[in-house]
């Protein structure tokens, strides 16, 4: 994810507002030649786990030697992974040197309680959103090569490891009109094998009404787990970034997406680039608050032309368009 820290005074301590992390998520595990714009992750974490212990030891030894970081900093606790350590390292390096355009921030524990990691063999593949104690919402393209529910598990919480909760998947329902490799109708619902006990750190997001309107140019937050560099491993901590909702007329301009944005899609980001979701965020939530502070699911991370390029904002599945379909499949 290439993104920026949201600056809401009641949510973010002032000491964190200058911290920047610039993340580039993994390439797709699908056929990148035929479908370069979708945003799931690669198989790279398998190799990352093999070298993780060596990297951790070398990194810890070097940083202890030069006194670069407080040994109590969470990125270097014994129960955290190398990925977490590197997120912290990049954050501190950036904050003590030249400011970078873009950047995302670590989410606080329990901050986005509806965020889900969809995994195969304990490896993060896509994001999803909790919409009830038994149902999740995600992107159809996440399941293009693995549609059988037994191949998937869902984990909950801010950290990939250890998760706050884990569930097996019972059912995957892909929209009937989704047709790979098209970007349109990119939506799926996922039923869990058993109910969850919703609590402060695991909770559903609000679903909008079909007629609900979200003003363009308003702030929204996209969340997900992404790589620290191109084709690299996912960080252990959930990342968050603030983007702007962009109207479809602007997004369909020739220099942007040249008419590719259908009524079932929503653009969010910045025309100047620099802040965006990216590969690995697929299926995850784009949310925005109302005046009461209630968070509504606006979009589902779907596709884009690479990541954070000028005139190429992120493209999301428009949730309001599919509200009746969601109700039909889930009863919600």
Automatic annotation (TrEMBL):
Keywords, sorted A to Z: Disulfide bond, Hydrolase, Protease, Serine protease
Domain Peptidase S1: from-to ranges: 100-331
Keyword DNA repair: no
CDD domains hit by this protein: Tryp_SPc
One Gene Ontology term of the molecular function aspect: serine-type endopeptidase activity
KW rRNA-binding (keyword) present: no
Database matches in Gene3D superfamilies: Trypsin-like serine proteases
Domain of life according to the entry: Eukaryota
One of the Pfam families matching this protein, by short name: Trypsin
Record-level GO BP terms: modulation of process of another organism; proteolysis
GO terms for cellular component: extracellular region
Record family assignment: Belongs to the peptidase S1 family. Snake venom subfamily.
Protein name (record): Peptidase S1 domain-containing protein
Lineage: Eukaryota, Metazoa, Chordata, Craniata, Vertebrata
């Amino acid at each position: 994810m290439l993104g920026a820290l949201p600056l809401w005074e009641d949510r973010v301590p002032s000491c964190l507002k200058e911290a920047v992390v610039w993340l580039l998520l993994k390439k797709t595990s699908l056929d990148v030649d035929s479908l370069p714009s979708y945003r799931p992750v690669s198989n790279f974490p398998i190799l990352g786990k093999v070298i993780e212990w060596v990297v951790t030891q070398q990194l810890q030894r070097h940083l202890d030697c030069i006194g670069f970081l407080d040994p109590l900093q969470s990125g270097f606790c014994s129960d955290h992974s190398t990925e977490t350590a590197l997120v912290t390292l990049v954050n501190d390096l950036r904050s003590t040197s030249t400011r970078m355009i873009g950047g995302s921030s670590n989410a606080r524990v329990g901050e986005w309680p509806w965020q889900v990691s969809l995994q195969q063999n304990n490896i993060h593949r896509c994001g999803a959103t909790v919409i009830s104690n038994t149902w999740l919402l995600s992107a159809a393209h996440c399941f293009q090569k693995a549609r059988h529910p037994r191949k998937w598990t869902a984990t909950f919480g801010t950290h990939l490891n250890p998760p706050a909760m884990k569930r097996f998947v019972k059912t995957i329902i892909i929209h009937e009109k989704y047709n790979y490799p098209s970007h349109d109708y990119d939506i799926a619902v996922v039923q869990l094998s058993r109910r969850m006990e919703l609590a402060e750190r695991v909770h559903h997001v609000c679903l909008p009404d079909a007629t609900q309107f979200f003003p363009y140019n308003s702030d929204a937050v996209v969340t997900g787990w992404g790589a620290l560099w191109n084709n690299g491993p996912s960080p252990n901590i959930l990342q968050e970034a603030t983007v702007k909702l962009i109207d479809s007329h602007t997004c369909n301009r020739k220099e942007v997406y040249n008419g590719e944005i259908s009524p079932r899609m929503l653009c969010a980001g910045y025309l100047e680039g620099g802040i965006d979701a990216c590969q690995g965020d697929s299926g995850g939530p784009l949310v925005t608050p109302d005046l009461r502070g209630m968070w509504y699911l606006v979009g589902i991370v779907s596709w884009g032309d690479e990541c954070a390029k000028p005139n190429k904002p992120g493209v999301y599945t428009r949730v309001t368009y599919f509200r009746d379909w969601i109700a039909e499949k889930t009863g919600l």
